[in-house]
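Running co-folding for zinc ion.
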Amino acid sequence: MRTGPIEMLDLLQEAATVFSIPRDTQLDKMAETYAKILGWFPLDILKKALQEYLTTETRRFPRPGDLYPLAKRIQSTPKSSTLKDETMTWYQDGMWGPCPVCDSVLEDPGPEGKKRVVVHHDAQRHREVDVPFSGPRSN
Ligand SMILES: [Zn+2]
């Protein structure tokens, strides 16, 4: 089901509670544009994409291009997938975003960029849900 400008406006208003926007911003006009670009994603996917966006360091109001890749990735993850499958997909996708199990993220390789980029997993959390991980651990 497509997401229309009305639902999109709700989403933008939610984002506007977090990010400051100019007082004269016409959210309803923006919602029409966002709906043209993102409207083919179902609303629940877009809501998840916004949630994910809000957990990043970004401090500006999300543009359609910010939400698009998040929504696409969330949509491509089958609903029936287990945590194990999600973790596999996460590895295959290049460990983009937090680990589905323990929320650990890729560490910055540093200015020299030579060190291997790694995720330090929470081994205990992985044991609890019985999903294996590869690489170093944080505990
Ligand atoms: Zn992990």
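Result summary
Residues 64-76 form the longest helix (13 residues).
Residues 1-76 form one domain.
Job closed.
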